[in-house]
Automatic annotation (TrEMBL):
SUPFAM superfamilies: Homeodomain-like. Signal peptide: none annotated. It comes from Leptospira wolffii. Residues 138-238 form the HTH araC/xylS-type domain. The lineage of its organism: Bacteria, Pseudomonadati, Spirochaetota, Spirochaetia, Leptospirales. Keywords: DNA-binding, Transcription, Transcription regulation. It comes from the Bacteria. The keyword Transcription regulation applies. This is HTH araC/xylS-type domain-containing protein. InterPro entries: AraC_XylS_family_regulators, Homeodomain-like_sf, HTH_AraC. Pfam families: HTH_18. The keyword DNA-binding applies. PROSITE patterns: HTH_ARAC_FAMILY_2 (PS01124). One of its GO terms (molecular function) is sequence-specific DNA binding.
């Protein structure tokens, strides 16, 4: 897990793109809300956002400081007694998932660490270790994850299940349970993430598409728009301030 402080001094909207991780957030000052069309949700001070397959627009109040914890879906699933697919594209308060007393202790510990300029790791570790394991460890889901990541999303699901020695229906079912997505959806997210790994070294968008595993320019543009809401040209133009 990656644990770090994030501070936003100005109440400006910002976009979070889909990724293959889940994110815990604990606000020690300020609040955050997200908006999708006409729907607005004010996030709980301590919450969890499941794996995203669509971009999400957030706005924070001024001087918002949050402890963010980037967690792999598989490790998170061990602490939950339901399928991770239930929180796909959702943000939910930790008090809806875990005992209120543990969440209050986490908030208090994070506030103390913020006041003492701590890195937040001790507060998070105490909370995480206090949660019981809800699911047994298995081998083939992490192995399927690893293979999809190593292939940078360019993987045959049929070949994957053959290599793992399990049925496709079992992989689909268990992958959604422990990761929140189907293997095919997960592979698409991994490939999308490759775009940003190669964006600095690519000469143009055609080169970027090829480096990221998209062999069809139309597919690259279509998938980028699906995940980000805009075309790659629009995204990188805005990112570069053009």
């Amino acid at each position: 897990m990656k644990v770090y402080w994030n501070t936003r001094e100005n109440p400006e909207p910002y976009t979070v793109l889909p990724s293959r991780s889940c994110v815990f957030g604990v606000q020690v000052s300020g609040r955050i809300r997200w908006q999708k069309e006409e729907e607005v949700q004010v996030l709980e001070k301590a919450g969890l956002t499941g794996i995203l397959t669509e971009h999400r627009k957030f706005t924070s109040t001024g001087n918002t400081r949050s402890l963010l914890i980037i967690a792999s879906p598989y490790s998170l699933s061990s602490k939950l007694d339901f399928s991770l697919s239930e929180i796909k594209n959702r943000s939910i308060g930790l008090s809806d998932l875990f005992p209120a007393s543990k969440v209050l202790s986490l908030l208090s510990d994070c506030e103390e660490e913020a006041d003492s300029e701590g890195d937040g790791l001790a507060a998070w570790t105490r909370f995480w270790n206090s949660l019981p394991e809800r699911k047994k460890t298995d081998r083939y889901i992490p192995e399927a994850e690893r293979r999809i990541q190593e292939a940078k999303g360019d993987v045959s699901i049929r070949q994957l299940v053959s290599d793992l020695g399990i049925s496709q229906s079992k992989l689909e079912r268990d992958f959604k349970e422990r990761i929140g997505l189907s293997p095919k959806e997960y592979a698409s997210l991994v490939r999308f993430g490759e775009i940003f790994e190669h964006s600095e070294e690519s000469e143009n968008l055609t080169d970027l598409a090829y480096r990221s595993g998209y062999y069809d320019q139309a597919h690259f543009i279509r998938e980028f728009r699906k995940f980000s809401g805009v075309s790659p040209k629009e995204w990188f133009r805005k990112k570069n301030g053009i």
